[in-house]
Design brief:
This protein is an alpha/beta fold. It has 7 helices and 12 strands.
């Protein structure tokens, strides 16, 4: 049985999907990657280079519906794979290269039924050039901040009940060397272009996806704020006594069980650590 399948769901991700395919192709092999295409019309899903495309008709964005579909797909794939991971198109999972060869190695050695990733926002530093999607992210970006919203239960060995956004599941968060590097704020121009797409597309209701429908000025302020935070050049993402480790301890302390055993836990969201920390060379090399 193959160790790991990776799923994403996309709509017109011309800039992030090539990065996603390159990264997970290296990590698990493209034939084990599943791209759920929610009606893309920009040509970005025309050639996935060996990944499987699951084509859906376009409909208003409904995050509850999306969660149900991915939950069912993950449950089905677990009949054929030992582990399944779900990540958005702008999310790159990396198992600490000091301990694991790649995500397949991590999945083979995983002993629990679900792992929560350490959430990191890659930021656009003030002296860094625009991000080129044709080049490895790790060659172009060198710092990140902790993000509690990116601490997602990505990799599972059983059918789980996820919260919308994959921020929690029906169990306690467990961190063990799996990191999620988020690209949404890694480049100002790309962030503005993506925000324009999500702001313009139809949504299921007025409350859905509000954080993805803010105006251009808001997005510009967020990206520039993250990039301008003080940088600690001597502390890395995985430093045992660094700010990320402290934030993880607080995350675990503040997590609480759901109302019943099969309900997702409550976890802290929208907490961002500071200062910026350095992305260690071993992680930068792994970031496709």
């Amino acid at each position: 049985m193959p160790p790991l399948a990776v799923i994403t769901m996309v709509y017109n991700e011309a800039e992030k999907l090539p990065v996603w395919l390159r990264h997970y192709g290296r990590q698990v092999g493209l034939k084990h990657c599943y791209v759920v295409d929610h009606g893309s019309d920009d040509g970005s899903t025309a050639d996935l280079g060996g990944a499987s495309r699951i084509a859906l008709p376009r409909s208003p964005q409904d995050n509850d519906q999306r969660l149900s579909l991915v939950t069912d797909l993950a449950r089905g794939l677990l009949r054929y794979y030992a582990r399944v991971a779900y990540v958005d198109a702008d999310e790159l999972l990396v198992a600490d290269p000091a301990r694991y060869a790649d995500l397949n190695d991590y999945a083979r050695r995983m002993t629990v039924d679900a792992v929560t990733s350490v959430g990191m926002e890659i930021v656009h530093g003030p002296d860094e050039d625009p991000l080129d999607s044709a080049l490895a992210v790790g060659e172009q970006r060198g710092s990140a901040i902790f993000s509690s919203s990116m601490c997602k239960t990505n990799m599972v060995a059983r059918a789980v009940n996820w919260a919308p956004g994959w921020h929690a599941h029906d169990g306690a968060p467990r961190f063990d060397g799996l990191y999620l590097f988020h690209l949404r704020h890694a480049d100002l121009a790309q962030a503005l272009r993506r925000n324009a797409i999500t702001r313009a597309m139809p949504w299921a209701n007025d409350a859905a996806g509000r954080h993805q429908r803010n105006d251009e000025a808001w997005m510009k302020t967020v990206v520039e704020h993250f990039g301008a935070l003080p940088l600690d050049p001597h502390t890395g993402v995985a430093s045992p006594d660094g700010p990320v480790a402290r934030e993880l301890a607080a995350f675990v302390a503040d997590a609480a069980p759901g109302a019943s055993p099969d309900r997702p836990w409550s976890v802290p969201l929208a907490r961002y650590g500071r200062p910026r920390v350095t992305i260690e060379p071993r992680f930068r090399k792994a970031l496709g």
